[in-house]
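Quick check before the chapter quiz. The format below is the same one you will see on the exam, so make sure you can read both the input and the output lines.
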Amino acid sequence: MRVKYTVDSTAYYLNIHTNNKTSSLGIKVASKDMLILCYQKDTAVLRDISNHLKNIYENERKGTKNKIKYTKTLHFMAQEILFHIDAYVLAEAQIKGIKVDSNKYTEKLAELIDKLIVEPSKVADVGANITKDHDSAIINVGYTARIPSGFMINKQFYKIGESLGSPLENTSDVWYECSYKGETKKVKK
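Here is the expected output.
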């Protein structure tokens, strides 16, 4: 489903899906919209997006047999989205032979990609809680290693992501509309 998210009077479109069987939600990271939101906006924006995603998950869960409430913190959800887009950009850069400046974080991330990722995932899959998301510990450690050089990583990964030719997200068929620090509104039944 598509979500229209507005921040600073600019609309960005997110492609998400909720999965009641696995009690998770996914957000497509392979788009120009996500590159901008993850690498050019403050992390408060990602936490706000996480809040809207949590609301959407709970709304879509109503009337289903899924009894798992979404209990992850907004900060943890935001770092998971950021970690997934970092892994996607770095994996694609490795495949295409694009040089990435090496630092402690990119080296650790490259190791994880080699061990855990068969092919780059274009979706950040965020489980409803720690028991539903087995990558949580790895992501938390990875994010901690990212903090000291976050600004430089954002700048470099945005540039690489742009060179990958990530498309703008489709703007049709919007199910939800939300805005920075605003409410989550379902617009399609």
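If your answer matched, good. Residues 74-96 form the longest helix (23 residues).
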